[in-house]
């Protein structure tokens, strides 16, 4: 797993080509997004790549997000006519809802096939998403214990493998890796907060102080972890300094070690140690 992919135009063209090729082999696409940042973790070009193929959005890492905000997102996607669900792809919690959602999404297609005389139609699906969102975790969960299908058929001959994950449902084993909306600075920041992009391209202390400011506005209680009980009127930089002091991270002369504090805040947020936090709400979409 590598969360530090940098996208150059060549990479993007190659990724696009690979996904377009795989798309010809499937009936539906599952886009995995991060529940904490469903806006920023979607790919801007997927809709035009997928065209008319049914698409399901899976909000992964639901255990790290604020469940009430995740519910709002599910409503929002529904209002856009996009089938969506949330799950913890690591533990598998919520994934039991996947098959019913897929089958209801493809109901018309399956009925059409049956009307044409196909008795046991097989639905093929693939997973796409930006780096580090949980694509492999989802695939591993869905294929656990299942055998890869071997044989002479499209996809198999090209080195792809398929897993039969339910009666009449096959999953392509390799996910399509997509790039995020890099041109939007707020997206870049959201991806940096969750660790989806490299830290080195952003200054860690600035990033952490901005995260602290967002947390203090929406989830002030999580900062009690750093012995910060009163957040009102404090800037992100002041909060970062309090984190350093709260954790006794000091440098010579008793000054707060902001670099260390910033790293701690980001690591703990990314690891879910600050509790369930959502950074984006649908009304801001
Ligand atoms: N807490 C939590 N962590 C998750 C979940 N799904 C994935 N992860 C973690 O997120 C990290 C990335 O997950 P992967 O499944 O490797 O993501 P990916 O999309 O395949 O990543 P790339 O292959 O790098 O593009 C891993 O550390 C996983 O353990 C989830 O639902 N909850
Ligand atoms: Mg992966």
Q: Can you lay out the helices and strands and say which pair or pack?
A:
Blueprint: H1 9-23, E1 28-34, H2 46-50, E2 55-60, H3 67-79, E3 84-86, H4 98-105, H5 107-115, E4 123-129, H6 135-143, E5 148-149, E6 162-166, E7 169-172, E8 176-177, H7 185-194, H8 204-218, H9 236-246, E9 250-251, E10 255-256, H10 258-270
Parallel strand pairs: 1-2, 1-4, 2-3, 4-7, 4-8
Antiparallel strand pairs: 5-6, 6-7, 9-10
Helix pairs in contact: 8-9, 8-10, 9-10
Question: Can you put this structure into words, describing what you see?
Answer:
It contains 10 helices and 10 strands. Strands 1, 2, 3, 4, 5, 6, 7 and 8 form an 8-stranded mixed beta sheet that branches. It has a two-stranded antiparallel sheet with strand order 9-10. The longest helix has 15 residues, at 9-23. The mean pLDDT is 90. The chain is elongated and about 80 Å long. It folds into 2 domains: 9-177, Rossmann fold, CATH 3.40.50.300; 203-284, Conserved Hypothetical Protein Ylqf, Chain: A, domain 2 (Orthogonal Bundle), CATH 1.10.1580.10. The chain is an alpha/beta fold. Helix content is 38%, strand content 14%. Strand 1 (28-34), helix 2 (46-50) and strand 2 (55-60) form a beta-alpha-beta unit. Residues 1-3, 60-61, 63-64, 88-90, 129, 131-137, 177, 272 line the site of guanosine-5'-triphosphate (GTP).
């Amino acid at each position: 797993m590598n969360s530090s992919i940098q996208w150059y135009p060549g990479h993007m063209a190659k990724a696009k080509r690979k996904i377009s090729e795989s798309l010809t082999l499937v009936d539906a696409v599952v886009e995995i997004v991060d529940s904490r940042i469903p806006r920023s973790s979607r790919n801007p070009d997927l809709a035009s790549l997928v065209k008319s193929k049914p698409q399901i959005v899976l909000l992964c890492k639901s255990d790290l997000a604020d469940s009430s905000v995740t519910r709002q997102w599910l409503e929002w996607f529904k209002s856009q006519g996009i089938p969506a669900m949330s799950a913890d792809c690591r533990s598998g919690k919520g994934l039991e809802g996947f098959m019913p959602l897929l089958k209801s999404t493809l109901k018309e297609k399956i009925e059409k096939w049956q009307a044409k005389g196909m008795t046991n139609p097989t639905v093929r699906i693939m997973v796409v998403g930006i780096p580090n969102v949980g694509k492999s975790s989802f695939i591993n969960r869905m294929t656990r214990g299942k055998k890869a299908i071997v044989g002479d058929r499209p996809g198999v001959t090209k080195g792809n493998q398929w897993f039969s994950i339910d009666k009449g449902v096959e999953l392509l084993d390799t996910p399509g890796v997509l790039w995020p909306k890099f041109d939007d600075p707020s997206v870049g920041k959201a991806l940096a907060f969750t660790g989806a992009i490299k830290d080195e391209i952003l200054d860690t202390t600035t990033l952490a102080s901005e995260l602290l400011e967002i947390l203090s506005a929406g989830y002030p209680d999580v900062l009690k972890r750093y012995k910060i009980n009163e957040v009102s009127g404090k800037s992100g930089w002041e909060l970062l300094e309090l984190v350093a002091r709260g954790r006794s991270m000091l440098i010579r002369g008793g000054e707060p070690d902001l670099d260390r504090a910033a790293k701690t805040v980001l690591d703990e947020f990314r690891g879910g140690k600050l509790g369930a936090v959502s950074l984006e709400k649908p009304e801001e979409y």
